[in-house]
Amino acid sequence: MTTTIQISDQVKSTLDKMKLMDRETYNDIIERILEDDLELNEKTKKEIIEARKRVRGGKFVSHEEVKRRFGL
């Protein structure tokens, strides 16, 4: 099924810049964006869980320590 949607000129321009090939459709671009977003979200969730575990275990460097190490 095909559906028509309305987008602003600015969004259309952005989508045009995201094309990997001249003949790539807007549907292809939107599918790629959605796929990337879902993958990133899952990856990000896992990274947050791991980071929290490291912090709870005391495995982190404070902002003050980073500044001291770099002489800032």
Description:
This protein has 72 residues and is mainly alpha-helical. The chain has a domain at 22-69. The chain is 67% helix and 0% strand. It contains three helices and no strands. The longest helix has 31 residues, at 26-56. The radius of gyration is 21 Å and the shape is elongated. The N and C termini lie far apart (59 Å). The mean pLDDT is 93.
Topology (elements, then pairings):
Layout: H1 9-18, H2 26-56, H3 63-69
Q: Total helix count?
A: 3
Q: What would you call the shape?
A: elongated
Given helix and strand content, the structural type is: mainly alpha
Please tally the β strands and state the result: 0
Relative helix content: 55-70%
Percent of residues in β-strands: under 5%
What average pLDDT do the residues reach?
93
Question: What Rg do the Cα atoms give?
Answer: 21 Å
Alpha carbon gap, first and last residue: 59 Å
Which sheet architecture does the biggest sheet show? none
Report low-confidence residues grouped into runs of 5 or more.
none
Secondary-structure element pattern, one letter each: HHH
